[in-house]
Amino acid sequence: MTRRDPTPAYGDVTGAAPRRRRVVFDHDGAPDDLLSLLLLTRYDHVDLRGVAVTPADCLLEPALSATRKILDLVGRDVPTAAGVLPGRNPFPLAWRIDALRVDALPVLNQKDHDTTRADRPAAHEQLATWLMRAPAPVTVLATGPLTNLARCLDDHPRIESRIEEVVFMGGALDVTGNVNQPGHDGTAEWNVFWDPGAVRRVFDAAVPITMFPLDVTDRVPVTPDLARAFGRHYGHPVSDLAGSLLALTFGTLETTSLPYCCWDSLTTSYLAEPGICTFETVHCDVITRGESQGRVVRRSGGRAVRCARTVDSGRFHRHLLTMLTPGPTPVPTPGGRQASPARRADVGPAGERGG
């Protein structure tokens, strides 16, 4: 096993323009994961080479189906793969069924879809193929658990050199976690808690890691103003889908006492607009056993990870609307006021939780 590189090289991303990237996306099928997929398809500088679905915060089949329908909606022919590896600590079923609702959305069912495609190799095997066949190193964007990547590193050690960067939504450094389960002390975030050993394995790899913990992602809750802003573009499939995915998150606060946040879509926006967040390099480790399992902790001499620390939430909201609507509209600010119209890319018609 390749041991951890304690000082991976991280560039300064403050104010940086996006650069071309080859990306493999591993998500776990929640509404914000699927919003992240939609965002990725709008980034001209991203070469999306494959999408894996981890059966963590979702039911696998509807999440995989919704993934394929989204790619079809925007006219993208991108290979997909199903995760088959279990996590140690399952997500609540009440959260996982959101994938059923997304898969049934009218905007994704304007025509019949092929649901009889031959199965590809399991996601952890397909991930190795995508990485090895890419002409240059690839960014692995993970908005769900790191289980597929960890197994891939175990089974195919050579792929380590094919990874340019791991961008991961997970962890809770200096804030309370969002796991409320019997026998747990509440210090962990769900993507890490689902499979703590996988995070430890990826930490042990000599690859740069950029992590978006709850410390920053909890600062961008889904608000009524944000969701309703997409209604001003009703009739455009991409903005219709984006608004629908955000609307599906309503009720989370009432049922869990915690707001639904843009955990994954904020993480994804880093690939296009890294200046939305500020970062610091943190030496950390993950607890893999006991009542704190899944907790990411600061530790002197631990793995060096670049962590997002602050976020410009107004700029992030503008980013979503710029990428996912067809024209300028007033942009909601965190306080509910309307900011000046923002210029957005044209998007015409086309065919407590954390992550």
Automatic annotation (TrEMBL):
This is Purine nucleosidase. Residues 324-355 are annotated as: Disordered. Keywords: Glycosidase, Hydrolase. It comes from Streptosporangium becharense. Its EC number is 3.2.2.1. Residues 23-317 form the Inosine/uridine-preferring nucleoside hydrolase domain. Gene3D superfamilies: Ribonucleoside hydrolase-like (3.90.245.10). PANTHER family: INOSINE-ADENOSINE-GUANOSINE-NUCLEOSIDE HYDROLASE, INOSINE-URIDINE PREFERRING NUCLEOSIDE HYDROLASE. GO terms for molecular function: purine nucleosidase activity. The keyword Protein biosynthesis does not apply. One of its GO terms (cellular component) is cytosol.
